[in-house]
Design brief:
The protein has 2 helices and 8 strands. By secondary structure, the protein is mainly beta. It has an 8-stranded antiparallel β-sheet, with helices on one face.
Length: about 170
Amino acid sequence: MAETEITYAYLAKAHRIFSDHNRAGNSGMDYHLLNLAHSGFDSGKPSAYSYWPGFDDGLAIRLATATRTIGMSFDGSEPLSKNFKLIYRLELADQADYDQGAAGNHAKYQFAELGFAYKKLTLKIGKETLEGDGSYGFATQWRRCINLMVGQIIFWPPPKDGLQDRYL
């Protein structure tokens, strides 16, 4: 069990980039975050995560951001020779309304990456998708970008039609 890591966090307040005098400033919350990871496999590290927000105030903030996110990933590599290895990463997540969030907030996230490493040189190809249905797009909680998404440009609000990024 030493190879299994369990992380739990509880957030009671968010200090946002807006001033304390703005409605979207600080928010009281009841936010639970859980991450499970296991490093005992030679081929890679599976992990699972779950984010369950609760908001004490600000109906507008709750409607826009009250979505629970559940996901899993697998990140690993496989040696092919002394200096050459295969690198891979897969991730899937599901996001849906929660704690009085706007009904219909539902989207998925998919990420796949495959690459090769030779000594210190690495080449990867990947595809990342944040789904959107025209009325709601997968939102990166806490306004961070997931991986490379369009050169690390942060979109807020997230595009309601979603985003897709392919790269080499």
